[in-house]
Amino acid sequence: MADATNNHTADEEDYMGDLSQFIPPETPQPPKSSSRKVSNSKTLIPQPPSKKPKTLNWQEQRILKRQQKQAEEDQQTLVNLESAIPQSNIGFKMLKQMGYTPGAALGKEGSGLAEPVGLEIRRSRAGIGREDPRKEKIRREEENFERMRRKEEGLMAEFECRQKEQWRSRRVVVNFHKAKAALAQLENKEVVEEEKNDEDSENEEEEEEEEITEEDLQEILMKLRDDYQYCLFCGCRYESMEALLSNCPGTNEDDH
After folding, report:
1. 133 lies in a domain?
2. Where is this region: Disordered (predicted)?
């Protein structure tokens, strides 16, 4: 009897000790950190602002429709004016009875108008002698554009002229130094070049550009031609003055 009770209590202890069979299995859940990262990344992407078209109020829509309708009416009127009056028209019949021939000028001697008076459609409230405000605005814009274009062309021409003058003055200085060195060589003089700093050389070049003129260059060129029959631009010395005059194009660089 005692053994039976012991076995029964052991079975009860084993029954109460193994609780895993009563607990439902856990389902795996996705990690929360990754979902948060995805949501954060989605929120960080900037969305382009959607531009909504500008809506017109009822007054602006009414004005726009009226302008479109007036433009269509004006266009239709101009199209109708291009066609001649039909012969079934009462006015045409009256003119024909009075001796009018199609295409001829009016009047007894044919000195009148051959074409009808031109029609100008006006939708503004301006006076008869004043131009249409829309046409006047377009004309002013065209005039301003033409004025700006002419101004730009003038500035470009002035800039090109200034550039040419600077280039010519630099060429005068360069040719003057070449002529001076050639004259010193022909006179058997040594050309000594002193070592100078960059800043000093730039300053002296600016001063020389201001001092040396085209008259100075022509003077030294004529001295080379008269005394030594030498032309700087030809780069050679002639045997005589006659050979120089017959073979050399001139004293200017542009002639060579």
Report:
1. no
2. 1-75, 187-216
Letter for the amino acid at 138?
A: I
pLDDT more than 90, % of the chain: 11
Same domain, 231 and 153: yes
14-27: pLDDT as tens digits: 555 555 555 555 65
Q: What is the mean pLDDT of residues 148-164?
A: 93
Among 166, 184, 188, which Cα is nearest to 176's?
Answer: 184
Is there a single domain that holds both residue 64 and residue 170? Answer: no
- Residue 117 covered by a domain: no
pTM: 0.41
So what's the pLDDT on residue 106? 79
Question: CB burial class (10 A; 0-12, 13-18, 19+) of residue 167?
Answer: exposed
Identify whether residues 148 and 232 lie together within a single domain: yes
Q: Which of 190, 183, 188, 189 is nearest to 228 (CA)?
A: 183
> For residue range 65-105, what is the model confidence (pLDDT) as tens digits?
988 998 899 888 888 888 888 888 898 888 888 888 887 88
How many distinct structural domains can be found in the chain? 2
